[in-house]
């Protein structure tokens, strides 16, 4: 026994020595990159802030410490180096490279919820395996969504109007339920009336699991699944997962029953779930496979080989539910918060809304064409993304080794004074909300770096919501067999711009409805507003506003 123990101890010492030497060599290789003082193995653990608000301030503070070129900073999460980029030209090198398509390690922590879907999948699962077909862009498809957007926005403003006037309202919770109703109806073909309930277990679970991922990312000891499940907050995560997966499964079962009762007569725009269930009905996919896929892993595991390329890229339902309601709802809430901080700008937006709509409450596609992105510049819903280098990469004279974790800090890219004058100012000076800012007029955009504004990321793996909406437009073709041959194009700039319009449409309709019927006054001054980073940029304690009625709701 003593000999075995000695051998095990020697092996342990050799392995430890190997990793220590490897770590020290890595530190030497990265020496010279801007970085606060750190220590071997533990990195910046001694100064790391444990709370979400402190963490975001610390990360942003590191960027502010080094505002000059190359706008790059290194920090150590325990023994792991993470390089944060916040310069448009550096970000472009990474996001346009076909060598760096793999997401960062933090996305793997979402896999118990989202599986190997398009948000979390590695490059081998994500990359298309066959030739992509380019669908044709039709504005008519947008009109299929607008009735749902308008109807659910009407429900939202009626709920807000029923509250005691003059008292603070936590706006984000109301808009989140509105977004949940919209995504269920448009992508699942199912009306759930989430806005009729004061609280939603599903929304609570989404918010909680986002916080858990953020906490776990910062703690190297919790990266191991066994340790996390037994000594971390694994039980709370399991509770959230049970709620999230049960919600999705129930929606699937109810929608399947409705289709069976209609004898599978599909008409109009097919929802994503309708397509899956129709495939099951025609023997192309078992229902049990759909349930398994939605909660566990990627579509390509269960589909015939000729469909695997499509579904390995396309969103699975849990991803749709998250990306389709949480990001949009938060974005709309941030936009209303900013307008509530600047009443003079809000007044201009309301005047234009009134002039354009006249006596109508219906927001049409023509009314949305003027809207731009100033609120997303100030408060990008996804403030950071992570990538893992697939090969050695030269970044302004520093060669970062393969496997290095990168953070693309969109929040700070949008505040680069090289491209944005007075970057902290909310500046929708010209025309409509969200905003048709002077920053985004054609003459200003023309001279700006194309990666200086990337609220939906950029390159081949840009925003998941954009791809979902592009899919929704593509399924307009009513020939069922052709529906199975739909694909997503993400590398062509023209279509990337089209994605932005789709992804923003729901948010714009919601904001327009609220401003049409209420004056919004934010309770928290902008520079006192605390936020936290999970998967998205979320206010720490909600968005509290005072709503004063402007006009009756019909």
TrEMBL record:
Cofactors that this protein relies on: heme
A Pfam family it matches: p450
Organism: Dictyocaulus viviparus
Ligand binding (heme): 463
One Gene Ontology term of the molecular function aspect: heme binding
Family label: Belongs to the cytochrome P450 family.
Domain of life: Eukaryota
Keywords, ordered alphabetically: Heme, Iron, Membrane, Metal-binding, Monooxygenase, Oxidoreductase, Transmembrane, Transmembrane helix
UniProt name for this protein: Unspecific monooxygenase
InterPro entries: Cyt_P450, Cyt_P450_CS, Cyt_P450_E_grp-I, Cyt_P450_sf, Cytochrome_P450_Monoox
Residue ranges crossing the lipid bilayer per the database entry: 6-21, 72-91
């Amino acid at each position: 026994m003593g000999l075995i123990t000695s051998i095990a101890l020697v092996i342990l010492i050799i392995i430890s020595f190997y990793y220590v030497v490897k770590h020290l060599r890595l530190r030497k290789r990265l020496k010279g990159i801007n970085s606060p003082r750190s220590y071997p193995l533990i990195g910046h653990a001694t100064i790391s802030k444990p709370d979400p608000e402190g963490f975001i301030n610390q990360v942003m503070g590191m960027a502010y410490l080094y505002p000059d070129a190359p706008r790059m900073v290194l920090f150590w999460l325990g023994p792991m180096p993470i390089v944060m980029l916040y310069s448009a030209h550096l970000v472009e090198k990474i996001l346009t490279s076909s060598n760096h398509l793999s997401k960062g390690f933090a996305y793997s922590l979402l896999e118990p919820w989202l599986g190997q879907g398009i948000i979390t999948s590695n490059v081998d699962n994500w990359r298309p395996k066959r030739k992509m077909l380019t669908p044709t862009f039709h504005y008519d498809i947008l009109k299929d969504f607008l009735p749902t957007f308008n109807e659910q926005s009407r429900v939202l403003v009626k709920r807000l109007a029923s509250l005691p006037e003059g008292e603070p309202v936590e706006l984000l919770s109301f808009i989140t339920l509105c977004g949940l109703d919209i995504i269920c109806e448009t992508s699942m073909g199912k009306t759930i009336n989430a806005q009729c309930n004061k609280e939603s277990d599903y929304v609570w679970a989404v918010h909680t699991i986002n916080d858990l991922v953020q906490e776990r990312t910062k703690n190297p000891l919790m990266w191991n699944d066994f340790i996390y499940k037994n000594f971390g907050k694994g039980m709370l995560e399991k509770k959230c997962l049970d709620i999230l997966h049960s919600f999705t499964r129930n929606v699937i079962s109810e929608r399947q029953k409705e289709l069976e009762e209609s004898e599978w007569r599909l008409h109009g725009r097919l929802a994503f779930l309708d397509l899956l269930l129709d495939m099951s009905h025609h023997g192309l996919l078992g229902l049990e496979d759909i349930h398994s896929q939605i909660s566990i892993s990627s579509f390509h595991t269960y589909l015939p080989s000729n469909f695997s390329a499509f579904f390995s890229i396309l969103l699975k339902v849990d991803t749709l539910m998250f990306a389709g309601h949480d990001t949009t709802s938060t974005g709309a809430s941030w936009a209303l918060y900013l307008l509530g901080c600047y009443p003079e700008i809000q007044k201009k937006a309301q005047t234009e809304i009134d002039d354009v709509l006249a006596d109508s409450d219906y927001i049409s596609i023509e009314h949305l064409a003027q809207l731009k992105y100033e609120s997303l510049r100030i408060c990008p819903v996804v403030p950071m993304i992570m990538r893992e280098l697939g090969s050695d990469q030269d970044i302004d004279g520093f060669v970062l080794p393969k496997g290095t974790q990168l953070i693309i800090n969109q929040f700070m890219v949008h505040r680069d004074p090289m491209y944005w004058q007075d970057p902290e100012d909310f500046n929708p000076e010209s025309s409509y909300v969200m905003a048709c800012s002077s920053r985004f007029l054609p003459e200003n955009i023309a001279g700006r770096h194309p990666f200086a504004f990337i609220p939906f990321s950029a390159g081949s793996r840009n925003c998941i919501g954009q791809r979902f909406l592009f899919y929704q437009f593509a399924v307009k073709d009513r020939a069922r067999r052709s529906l199975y041959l739909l694909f997503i194009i993400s590398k062509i700039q023209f279509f990337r711009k089209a994605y932005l319009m789709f992804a923003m449409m729901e948010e714009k309709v919601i904001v327009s409805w609220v401003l049409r019927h209420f004056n919004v006054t934010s309770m928290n001054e902008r520079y006192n507003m605390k936020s936290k980073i999970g998967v998205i940029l979320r206010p720490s304690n909600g968005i509290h506003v005072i709503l004063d009625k402007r006009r009756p709701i019909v």
